[in-house]
Q: What sequence folds into this?
């Protein structure tokens, strides 16, 4: 299994995998919008003999602590093709993404999801609790990416890319 950043040639397979992995096309649409808006930071893919087995997407967030911008990303979506699940591929994709983002100087990664699942990557509600966000709550978690970390209890603002709000508005209709 080859874990690597996505290439332009992966785009149709990523779209197909997202459409097959979720009950609605929302995640595929989200990724398209993130790309069009220029908010994509990193897409990691897992590929085996030319077949796409998984994808993990990190997009740009606008985050401020004490009115200073902090380089931060949102992890979403993550998907692994059914036949490849429970073999640690999602874990490998996310870990490889975190490594690249750490080297790129990103300080924080946020995720909205099941604490029981994302906790295995180190995401914690406590890290996100001080950030104002429309998604604040028990599913909103964060992970400091730099070795120096970030003190718990830091307060600030954390805004997802516009594509997330566009999706939420469509879902509400
Ligand atoms: C979630 C998903 C990406 C995991 O992929 P994967 O490669 O099988 O994940 P890993 O092998 O790294 O880890 C599998 C573990 O995660 C657990 N897991 C998977 N989905 C979970 C969930 N929603 N909540 C809690 N645990 C979950 C599995 O039970 C398994 O646990 P185990 O290691 O104790 O057996 C995959 O199941 C998937 O694509 N699901 C559909 C899309 C989705 O729901 N994505 C997540 C939200 S963006």
A:
């Amino acid at each position: 299994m080859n874990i690597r950043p996505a290439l332009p040639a992966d785009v149709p397979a990523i779209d197909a995998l997202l459409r097959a992995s979720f009950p609605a096309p929302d995640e595929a649409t989200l990724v398209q919008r993130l790309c069009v808006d220029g908010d994509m930071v990193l897409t990691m893919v897992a590929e085996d003999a030319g077949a796409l087995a998984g994808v993990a997407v990190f997009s740009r967030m606008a985050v401020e602590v004490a009115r200073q911008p902090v380089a931060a990303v949102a992890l979403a979506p993550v998907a692994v093709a059914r036949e490849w699940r429970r073999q640690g591929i999602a874990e490998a994709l996310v870990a490889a993404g975190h490594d690249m983002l750490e080297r790129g100087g990103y300080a924080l990664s946020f995720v909205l999801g099941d604490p029981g699942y994302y906790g295995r990557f180190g995401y914690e509600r406590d890290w996100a609790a001080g950030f104002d966000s429309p998604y604040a709550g028990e599913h909103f978690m964060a992970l400091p990416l730099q070795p120096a970390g970030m003190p718990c209890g830091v307060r600030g603002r954390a805004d997802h890319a516009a594509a997330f709000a566009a999706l939420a508005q469509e879902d509400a209709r």
In short: The chain has six helices and eight strands.
